[in-house]
Design a protein that fits this description.
The structure is a single chain. With 100 residues, the protein is of the alpha+beta class. The chain has one domain (2-71). Helices cover 25% and strands 18% of the residues. The chain is built from one helix and three strands; from the N terminus they run H-E-E-E. The protein has one helix spanning 16-40, and strands at 48-54, 57-62, 67-71. Strands 1-2-3 form a three-stranded antiparallel β-sheet, with no helix packed on it. A hairpin with a 4-residue loop joins strand 2 and strand 3 (67-71). The longest helix has 25 residues, at 16-40. The chain is elongated and about 70 Å long.
Length: 100
């Protein structure tokens, strides 16, 4: 309909490399921000695969394969980020849709 008014809009192009670079920068910024807050508040963090053994006890297999048992009062489980929407693009989510 715009073309009848003399307005010509070219088809959008996807620059995946630029898109992924932006995503990587955003994720790194968030990770660094959380690391700063953990350090500031004297919170220990562990990277790896965790398993709750019992109340107050967690086993963490680190990225290097080393297993460490930790006694704690509180646990934060960070499984990753949520889906980032693209402005103007609507996606219907349900239990059968996995978006990464």
């Amino acid at each position: 309909a715009f073309d009848t008014l003399g307005v010509e809009i070219p088809a959008p192009k996807l620059n995946l490399k630029k898109m992924m670079a932006h995503k990587d920068t955003t994720v790194a910024s968030n990770v660094n921000g959380v690391a700063f807050l953990f350090k500031k508040n004297k919170i220990d963090s562990f990277r790896g695969t965790g398993k709750v053994i019992s109340a107050g006890k967690v086993s963490v297999t680190g990225e290097d394969g080393k297993v460490e048992e930790i006694e704690t009062r509180n646990v934060v489980i960070a499984t990753g980020s949520d889906v980032a929407g693209i402005p103007g693009v609507k996606v219907d989510f349900d239990e059968k849709v996995i978006v990464s």
